[in-house]
Design brief:
With about 325 residues, this protein is of the alpha/beta class. The protein has ten helices and 13 strands.
Length: about 325
């Protein structure tokens, strides 16, 4: 039985990952600060499904609380630490930038220090497709340059990648960064567009569709995300002996460090996504077409060649299947709360 720390265990991805690891028979320690960025009751409901597992322990801790983070790691050795806690959201970073500095930078530094001193065997951390920023080379490759973010959220995730590399280089801490592409599904985040669309459609309210709907996203179903994460947790990186400092590869290193995309590698037009959501809900949306928002990008698409090469896994859940599962969960959950 492995001992695994998951930060953000009450969050969307953290909850699903914790549940699957517990079902696999692992020991999971989960932490979360249960902040009110979105509905705290949804976070508590997720936790209620984890607490019955015998090998699950939960502590309410903020990543930015250095003394509590030091105490968490004291006299513990984790087989893996999966850092999923973060201040999420591109648009919110325009309103409250300090939340991103405290959670995504200060908090991540505390995770790195905890891993270093407790000699964690593997740090897996969430990055984001947002790091590709102004890059228009599609599909987005982990070997591409990502030095031009267009939001503070994206910049904070890029910073996480750089910080992790420094610790991999200095202390030999094996680090794996995962760039997630537009994750959706049951128990999702209410701040995500598909979630707010669903609420508005069922209530007969208009939905805001940015860039007049001329957007494409690599929507990735939660089960595919979890399958990819679990495979990569078991693939601890080693130094790349072929890495060339004269022509450095952004995705690998002479340190035990790797970066991967996890996406469906099949971008969908936003209008098509809304069409399918309407079909699964059995109700038409009132579409309010608006210009592009600051910090947004028109298209995302993941090159997952590295993920496939290392794990043999390729996300494949269609939006027809994924949105049907989400719509069924949404109706069931909100008629009981």
């Amino acid at each position: 039985m492995k001992k695994i720390l998951i930060t953000g265990a009450a969050g969307f991805i953290g909850f699903h990952l914790a549940r699957e690891l517990l079902r696999r028979g692992e020991q999971v320690v989960g932490i979360d600060n249960l902040n009110d960025y979105y509905d705290v009751n949804l976070k508590k409901a997720r936790l209620s499904h984890l607490k019955p597992f015998e090998h699950f322990a939960f502590e309410k801790i903020d990543l930015a609380d250095r003394p509590k983070m030091e105490s968490l790691f004291w006299d513990r050795e984790f087989d893996a630490v999966v850092n999923l806690a973060a201040q999420a959201g591109v648009r919110y970073s325009l309103q409250n930038p300090h939340a991103y500095i405290e959670s995504n930078l200060v908090g991540f530094a505390n995770v790195l220090e905890g891993c270093r001193h407790s000699r964690a065997k593997h740090l897996v951390f969430a990055s984001s497709s947002s790091v590709y920023g102004l890059n228009t080379h599609v599909p987005f490759s982990v070997h591409d340059n990502t030095d031009h973010p267009v939001s503070l959220y994206a910049a904070s995730k890029k910073a996480n990648e750089l910080m992790a590399h420094a610790y991999a280089h200095l202390y030999g801490l094996p680090c794996t960064g995962l760039r997630f592409f537009t994750v959706y599904g049951p128990w999702g985040r209410p701040d995500m567009a598909y979630f707010s669309f669903t609420k508005a459609i069922l209530e007969g309210q208009p939905i805001d569709v940015y860039n007049h709907g001329n957007m494409r996203r690599d929507f990735t179903y939660i089960d595919d995300i979890i399958a990819g994460v679990m495979r990569l947790m078991d693939s601890i990186p080693a130094p790349d002996v072929k890495w060339d400092a004269g022509c450095p590869d952004a995705a690998t290193s002479s340190a035990p460090y790797r970066i991967y995309n996890i996406g469906n590698h099949a971008p969908v037009d936003l209008m098509r996504f809304i069409d399918v959501l309407e079909e699964k809900l059995g109700k038409k949306a009132i579409r309010n077409l608006l210009p592009m928002q600051s910090g947004d990008v028109p298209s995302t698409c993941a090159d997952i060649a590295d993920l496939q090469a290392v794990t043999g896994f390729s996300p494949s859940t269609s939006i027809e299947v994924g949105l049907a599962e989400f719509a069924a969960w949404y109706r069931d959950y909100y008629q009981t709360v």
